[in-house]
Amino acid sequence: TTSAETLEFQSEARQLLQLMIHSIYSNKDTFLRELVSNASDALDKLRLEAFRDKELQVDTDDLHIEIDTDPEKRTLTVRDNGIGMSRDDVVALIGTIAKSGTAEFLKKLKETKDSAASQDLIGQFGIGFYASFMVADKVTLLTRRAGSDEGVRWESEGEGTYTIETVPDLPQGTSVVLHLKPEDAEDQLFDYTSATKIKQIVKKYSDFITWPIRMTEGEETATVNSMKALWARSSSDVTEDEYNEFYKHVAHDWNDPLETIRLQAEGTFEYQALLFLPGHAPLDLFMRERKRGVQLYVKRVFIMDDCEALMPEYLRFVKGVVDAQDLSLNVSREILQQDRQIQLIRRRLVKKVLSTVKTLMADENPYKYETFWKEFGRAVKEGLLDDHENRTAILDICSFASTNDPEKLTSLREYVERMKDGQEHIYYLTGESRQSIENSPHLEAFQAKGYEVLVLTDPIDEMWVDAVSGYEEKQFQSVAKGEVELDDDTTDEQKEEFSGLLTWLTTTLSEQVKEVRLSSRLTTSPACIVGDTNDVTPTLEKMYRAMGQ
Ligand code: ADP
Ligand code: MG
What we know:
Homodimer. One of its GO terms (molecular function) is unfolded protein binding. By secondary structure, this protein is of the alpha+beta class. The protein has helices spanning about 10-20, 30-50, 85-95, 100-110, 115-125, 195-205, 240-250, 335-340, 340-360, 365-385, 390-395, 410-420, 435-440, 445-450, 460-465, 490-510, 540-545, and strands at about 5-10, 65-70, 75-80, 135-145, 150-155, 160-165, 175-180, 215, 220-225, 260-265, 270-275, 295-300, 300-305, 320-325, 400, 410, 425-430, 455, 470, 475-480. A hairpin with a 6-residue loop joins strand 4 and strand 5. Bound molecules: adenosine-5'-diphosphate and magnesium ion (MG). Magnesium ion (MG) binds near residues 37, 38, 128 and 252.
C-alpha cells in the first residue's frame, strides 16, 4: 500500500468539473447513462482482451453491471467487473480530458452568455464520467485492472484536486460510488437512492446495453435491461427513442441524431448495420488526430471502435455499428483493410449514406438536409476528390451559394434547370468570401447576360473543381480563367482601334502579365486580370504559400 497522494486536475478538466458541479444541465438523470455506458465499454474491452490474450489471468464468467442504492448513506454505486484501470490509467483518463477540441469547446462555452445555448454546447461535447458531479458532491472510484494485483482508490469532490492511492484486495473492474448531494435529498425528482427511479432511468437510457444490468432489492436480484442488441431487432420493434439513446451511447453524444440508417444483408455474407448521421459536427472534424466513426462487432461481440476500413475519410462523421457474422473474432485493423468482404460492406454503407442524404434533400421539410450540409458539407466535398466511384452521387447531394439568390444555396440540379438557352457550362468563381467574389470584375459580363455563377468559398472547392469535369454533361468552368467564351462581341474595328494600346500595355507590363487582350467580359470595370486555364487560382496560391510550398 502506498500513501495517498493529492493531485491536481488538468486545467481543462477543472473547468469542466466546475460546470458540472454548478450544473446548468437540465437533465441530470443522464449521469447514469454515462456511468453505465462506461461500464459496458469496460466489459466489451475485457472480453476482447481475454479472447486475444489467452494467457491473461482474468475472470470472464459472469460479466455484468450492478447498481446499488443506499438511502441511509445517500450513496449510489455503479459496479462492473470489466477491464478496470491501472493507477496511470486513472490519472490519464479521469484526471485529464483526452478529447481533442476540448480547449476550443471551453473557449466557445466561455463566450456563450445564454444558458440555453451553453446547454446545447455541453450536449454536443458530452461530459462522460464528470457528469457524476451533477448529482454527487463526492465521488469515490475503486478499480483494478484485469490481470493486475494492484487496486486503486481515487476520490474527489470535483473542485481542483483528487486523491489517489494504491489499495489491496479489490475485485477486478471498477466501482463508482456517488455521494449524493444533500440539497437534492428533499426533491423527488432527484431521488437517486430510489430503486424504482433508478430502474426507470436504466430502462429509458440504457435498455439496449448488451450486458446484464442488475439490481438487488431485499433478497431478490433482477436484471433490469432487456439486453437486446438493437441492430439485431426488427426495426418495427424499436422505437425512435431507443435508437436515439443507442446513438448517444455509441457516439458519446448527448443530443439526438439527425437521421438513423438501417441496413441488413442476408445470404452468404450476413451483416447488420445501424448507422447515424449526427446533428452536429464533432469539434475534431478537421483536426489531424480526428477519429472515424463506426464500431465493428462480430456476432454481437464488440471488436473495435473507429473502424476505418468501414467508412471512407470523407464520411468520418457517420456513427454507429456494423455487426458481421462471418468474420473471425481475431481480425486486426490491417487484415480488415485487405478484406474483400469488408470492402463490399463499405461500398454498400457509403451508397446507403449518400442515398439517405439524397432522400433528406427531397424531403418537404428542408431542416434535416440543411443541417446536414451546414455541419458536414465541407467534409463531404472531400469525397469529390477521393471517391471516384460515387462522384455523381456526391455531386447530387452538394449545395452551393450562387448569384441566383444570396439567401439560398442551390443544388447542381437546380442550377442546371435554370441554365439559359445557349449556356453551355456551369460557371463558378472561387474566392475567400462571398463579398470578395461579388466585387470581382470577372462577374460583370456573366451577370449582364443573366448567367448564374456558383460562389465557392471553401478552400476544398479550389481542389475539386479542378478534379471533377462536370455534372450532367455540363462542364464546370471558372469565370476567372482563360478561354471563357461569351459570344465575342468585340468587333474588328475595335481590335484595330486598340491594337496600339494593347501592344504598349503588353510591353510595359511584360514582367507582370503574359498577355493583354481585348475582352467582352467586362461591362463597367476598365480592366481585369484573368488566369490562364491551367494556372493556379489566387486563393490556391495563397493556400500553397500558407502551407509553405
Ligand atoms: P468517454 O467514455 O467518452 O471516453 P468518459 O469521461 O466517460 O469519456 O470516460 C473517460 C475514460 O475513462 C474512458 O474512455 C475509459 O477509458 C475510462 N473509464 C471510465 N469508466 C471506466 C470503467 N468503468 N472501467 C474502465 N475504464 C473506465
Ligand atoms: Mg463515457
